[in-house]
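Q: What does the predicted 3D structure of Divalent cation transporter look like?
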Amino acid sequence: MTENDFLDNTTIIKYSHSNYEKTDFASVSEIDFLENKTTIKWLNTYGIKFHQAYKQVIIQNKLDDFLIKLLSDEDHPNKVILLDDLLFVTTRVLITTSNKLDSEQMVFIVSPTFLWSIQEKPGDYFNWIRERLEGNKGIVRKKKADYLLFLLLESIIDNYQDTYEENAELSADKLNSTHIKPTPEFTSLVEKRKQELFNFKKATMSLKDTIVKLEKMEIDGFDVKYFSELKEQTNNLISNIDFELQELESKINLIFSIQGHRLNEVMKTLTILSVVFIPLTFLAGIYGMNFENIPELKYEYSYFILLGVMVLITIISIWYFKRKKWF
């Protein structure tokens, strides 16, 4: 990864209550977090492999050199680490722009006066925040970088919520209770939806874990009061996911019940037929034996009498089964 690749994938937005500036860079040395402490800087980088450029930015801005080690690891579990006057926050988030849910590593290095967001893959959910900054909408330009971090995390949660609700509507149409059928295709749809929900729940709980850790941080000039609302949003989303998972589990159980009922009906029908034909087979077996002295065989109407007895046995058996409400 060259320096030019890093610069092509990096932008900075500088803002205050009265000013806004979006800048591209000609060299890494132009990235300065220390200038003009009254201006908030939001540096955004797409790509997590620019290790040499990261090292240069950290050294020239006199940031905690432990960041060099942290950023050299491209796959972090959830972490919220308090360093010298800044926080290192990393989490894995879902990418919901395609039908197949993917994930990416996202890193935030934040202090009261700057925020550096590093995303594994190009594209994000943050354009509405950029528009608010540029148009000076809301209170974002009156706040510090802690509020910007709150908005970025809120944007991720909102995207989860919107995607979940959209998929839930599609799922409700396909998996409507009136359409439940004990077929491999229907069962496959249920299992696919359950896997999607597990992925959503895992990602949401991961984000919640990060938010809970952020709530406990104490750093001068960094207000953690915003994050309690985010925790509530993640709790609501997890509750909705759990409720749908319970519904899907009920549908799977209903499918098994339907299959069991059908199997019982088939077995009952076969059993009744067997019970009806067992005495008939018995009579046919007796009179089909090759003994010379079977008196009934000499009688003129033996064949018709035997048929009559068989019919009578059949009628009595069916009457008895109906009386017992076995079918």
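A (community wiki): The structure tokens above were generated from the sequence. The mean pLDDT is 84. The longest strand covers residues 86-95.
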